Amino acid sequence: MEGKHLSVKEKIKYATADLLNKKSYMDITVTDISKTADIARVSFYRNYNSVADVFDDIVEDVFKEIIKDVVPVLKGNDPEAWKRFLLGMFRKFPKHHSVTKSKIPENENVFFSKLSEKFQKTKIGNDTGDRMKKYIAFGKIGLVVSIIKHWMAEGKKESPEEMVDFIMTFITNF
Fold it and tell me: Which domain holds residue 39?
């Protein structure tokens, strides 16, 4: 955990992310998180109702970060903007809260499943009034998230730059 000036909520999220690298999401308890975060259980319950709530909050953080970066790219459809966005994704995804660095496949699967659900519920592309643009936007985001998930699961053998070049072959054709 970095720094001593983290809020209790941040400590809880970082502790949960740390635990996700050591054990299954289903096996993590409030006690585990409280001990790892070095907080009292009552502090946990002042901020969250359950371990699932913490996990959802971490997914929400990642989602907001992606949305903030992707919406301008989707609206402009500039290949250079796509390259910058994708490179940022491949560099930051494995680092965010360290959740996505988990060596436990079921944790990655739960994380990406929840992230995909959030994308499906969002309004990306809806403001254009063009149904096909909306589906293309969702398709591009789904492609990026699926490829990053697979790249991480395979041990990140290719460089982020190689992955960006690969994805751009799909992005520029739509």
Answer: 8-51
Question: How far does Cα 57 stand from its chain's mean position?
Answer: 11
Q: Give which of 139, 105, 9 is closest to 61, Cα–Cα.
A: 9
Average pLDDT, the chain: 83
What does the block give as tokens for 45?
Answer: 């319950």
**H helices of the chain, where?**
8-20, 30-37, 41-47, 51-76, 79-92, 105-121, 131-153, 160-171
CA distance 36 to 14: 9
Instruction: Classify residue 2: in a domain, yes or no.
Output: no
Q: Does the residue 3 lie in any domain?
A: no
The vertex-104 CA angle with 6 and 53, nearest 5°, equals: 45
pTM > 0.90: yes or no:
no
